[in-house]
Design goal:
single chain, 368 residues, mainly alpha, two-stranded antiparallel ribbon, two-stranded antiparallel sheet, 12 helices
Length: 368
């Protein structure tokens, strides 16, 4: 193995990390604009329309405002935990995306550049930062750490409203993590692997509905797994603290919940974490249930063009789900907290268990 080979592998890894990080960071201002303009359209009002054409630069104006604001730490707060809490909330959203495949792999042929051989012997480029055989376990292990940032922020703020929000969030996230994980188990049973790339490949192709209509072989369309899809999507809303499950920051009851005492860039980090978590959850839903980068009725060749088309398909699916997050927020009112917990423990958890039994039966009958 030559030095050029090692260097090229490192460069490709750095490129993949940079692409994913830039995409996540750019999603935040884009989604802030979509959220504000989308809510305005739904409520029949203008929305942001002053800073830039159609208000496109409003998000950057908001970011500048956060940077210039004074950073205030409450007198009774635990300074170190109060300061670190936003980082605890941001890291899970940044790290879980590392195992999600966002395109189809393609072969890079050996090339000469400035007298050096690049991609010696050729190489497969796989658009996933870490393609490990326990990918889904890493996702759930890292995602479960997000509750620590919220609880730390609520406790360290020395504010009763912040503490109430943190307690609500911890109970909510732990409750719905069970349904979320069990819904994913159905997908893993069908794929026979914990590797997310294998899950995507298992959904490629089509199946025939009533022996006539070709349907994409995505898990969301499978007769055995549509229940898991519904449970996973609803639990995903609860995990990301989005309406109708935003009890951690219910403004009408808790001022602003766990980040009541936060200002300046610390508050902005919580803001970023929410939209990054939305993006990661959308990418995970696409990977597990909507075919990942698969394009229906089209067999992408392992070329650069096939890679570009698969990435475009993946991004389009994630963008559609992000719009659904916004749409639901401004359409469905917040539930009562007792209804939230009853849904989690008495409805979605039993449904997730039931779906595992259904999928196991389909596999035993060789229908999957």
């Amino acid at each position: 193995m030559s030095y050029a080979f090692d260097t090229t592998d490192i460069v490709l890894s750095v490129v993949k990390i940079a692409v994913v990080l830039l995409a996540l960071l750019n999603v935040v201002p884009i989604m802030v604009w979509v959220e504000r303009r989308g809510s305005a359209l739904i409520q029949d009002r203008p929305g942001p329309n002053r800073v830039g054409p159609f208000g496109l630069l409003q998000s950057f104006a908001d970011a500048l405002k956060f940077i210039l604001k004074e950073d205030i730490i409450p007198a009774g707060a635990h300074k170190w935990i109060y300061t670190l809490a936003p980082t605890f909330g941001l890291l899970p959203a940044l790290t879980t995306i590392a195992v999600v495949p966002w395109g189809r792999k393609f072969f890079i042929e050996e090339r000469e550049f400035l007298g050096r051989t690049l991609f010696e012997g050729g190489r497969w480029f796989e658009p996933v930062i870490v393609n490990v055989n326990v990918g889904i376990l890493i996702v759930f292990a890292l995602a479960s750490l997000g509750v620590y940032g919220i609880v730390a922020a609520g406790w360290a703020s020395n504010n009763k409203y912040s503490m109430f929000g943190a307690i609500r969030a911890s109970a909510q996230m732990i409750s719905y993590e069970l349904a979320l994980t069990l819904a994913a188990v159905s997908v893993l049973l069908a794929a026979g692997s914990l590797r997310l790339t294998d899950v995507v490949w298992q959904q490629s192709g089509t199946f025939r509905l009533f022996d006539t209509i070709p349907i994409p072989a995505w898990n969301a369309f499978s007769p055995a797994m549509w229940i898991a899809f519904v449970v996973f999507v609803v639990a995903g809303f609860a995990e990301t603290n989005r309406l109708p499950f935003d009890f951690a920051e219910a403004e009408a009851e808790l001022v602003a919940g766990y980040h009541t005492e936060y200002s300046s860039m610390k508050f902005a980090l919580f803001f970023m974490a929410e939209y990054m978590a939305m993006t990661t959850m959308s990418a995970l839903i696409v990977t597990l249930f909507l075919g990942g980068w698969d394009i229906p009725w089209y067999n992408e060749p392992p070329t650069f063009l096939g890679f570009i088309l698969s990435v475009a398909a993946f991004v389009a699916k994630v963008a559609l789900l992000l719009f659904v997050f916004v749409w639901v927020r401004w359409t469905i009112p917040r539930l009562k907290y007792d209804i939230l917990m009853r849904l989690g423990w008495k409805v979605f958890l039993p449904l997730a268990f039931l779906n595992i039994v259904i999928v196991a039966a389909f596999i035993a009958m060789r229908w999957l």
